[in-house]
Design goal:
Elements: H1 3-6, E1 13-19, H2 22-26, H3 33-43, E2 47-53, E3 60-65, E4 82-83, H4 87-96, E5 101-105, H5 107-117, E6 124-129, H6 137-151, E7 154-162, E8 171-177, E9 184-190, H7 195-201, E10 223-227, H8 231-234, E11 245-249, H9 252-261, E12 265-270, H10 272-275, H11 292-301, H12 304-311, H13 319-339
Parallel strand pairs: 2-5, 3-4, 5-6, 6-10
Antiparallel strand pairs: 1-11, 1-12, 2-3, 7-8, 8-9, 10-11
């Protein structure tokens, strides 16, 4: 590892937080902290790099934006491998032009960028997103085309973390062109019912390196952001089912940036080890399923519908599990009402 990447690191502090604009939060995966960071950079004439869906929705790719209106393209998780393209080269050009650059991606993409640059840039802010693993782009394309065939419409946009029924009970939402007049229709599917999300959450479709992710202990970013799963047990006053972020500060630069966006956030400092307890993807790789190799062989030979029947059937929930889940929901709702 390069010496300059180590200096000043491991100043790890954790916060539960969310952006004060409720509408922006509703259109973000968790607490919309990314938007607060991106607005800071853009308002200072900088450039923001992140992942957007391609125009045909068959893939995801890194793009850069320099205006607040375009941030909507970068909001929300994209559970598909993104094309890096020449974005590292463009980042270097922007840095050499003395622009402030915010680069957001997975931890391995951040590490790759920093090793490509080979030196420290004070005008570069790196933010990684806690990563469960990177799904196969072939599986995503098969799914997207299956969705189009099923709905007899062209996919126009896609949201992997729609909050129609709450943040913790998120689902997927496809936006389709219904006809030649470009009229739109929305299709929402619960994460528990959507086949793509189930194959992803069951770890069948991840890259081989994701099962032994070396960057879990070698994160070079300034800040890490994630869903604050388990927020109800740590900072219940920040749990309103619209979305709460976990923000981890890793460098002095990250601390300085966080201090500059605090006025846009509702936040509370929490113990790091407690904060990550319900989000093991921060420190632990996904477990490789025994069927993983067979899964990819089937992906080349079976129809998507056949893949769904084999790998994405909804798991049966026992009566006890249903009752416990219902009780937890009722208790949470009552406590939120009492706090109000």
């Amino acid at each position: 590892m390069l010496d300059w990447l180590v200096k000043g690191m491991r100043e790890t502090k954790a916060y539960a937080c969310y952006y004060n604009d409720k509408n922006v939060r509703l259109h973000s995966s968790s607490g919309a902290v990314f938007t607060a960071l991106a607005e800071l950079v853009i308002q200072n004439h900088g450039v923001v790099y992140g992942v957007a869906m391609a125009e045909d929705c068959y893939s995801a790719e890194f793009i850069s934006v320099e205006d607040i209106e375009s941030l909507s393209k970068l909001r929300g998780s994209k559970y598909v491998q993104a094309k890096v393209g020449n974005s590292f080269k463009k980042v270097k050009e922007d840095l050499l032009s003395n622009k402030t650059v915010l680069f957001t991606g997975t931890a391995c993409q951040i590490n790759g960028l920093l090793k490509f640059l080979g030196k420290e840039y004070e005008n570069l802010i790196c933010v990684d997103v806690v990563c469960h693993g990177v799904p196969s782009p072939d599986l995503w394309q098969a799914y997207a085309k299956f969705m189009e065939q099923t709905n007899n419409s062209k996919l126009k946009n896609f949201y992997f973390r729609a909050k129609d029924y709450g943040w913790s009970n998120f689902g997927i939402k496809g936006i389709f062109n219904k006809n030649s007049l470009q009229e739109e229709k929305e299709v929402y599917v619960s994460k528990k019912q959507d086949p793509y999300m189930q194959m992803f959450l069951r770890d069948y479709c991840l890259r081989p390196s994701c099962y032994e992710c070396i960057v879990k202990t070698q994160k070079m970013s300034d800040i890490t952001i994630a869903d604050f799963w388990g927020i109800y047990n740590v900072a219940p006053e920040l749990d309103d089912e619209i979305g709460t972020s976990l923000l981890i500060i890793r460098t002095p630069k990250g601390k300085h940036v966080f201090e500059r966006i605090c006025d846009k956030l509702n936040f509370k400092e929490v113990d790091y080890h407690v904060a990550v307890k319900a989000n093991p993807a921060e420190f632990k790789s996904s477990t490789k399923p025994k069927q993983r190799e067979v899964f990819f062989t089937d992906l080349q030979n079976l129809s998507f519908e056949e893949m769904c029947n084999k790998y994405a059937k909804p798991k049966k929930t026992s009566l006890v599990e249903k009752v416990v889940a219902k009780l937890k929901t009722v208790i949470k709702t009552m406590l939120r009402f009492i706090r109000k």
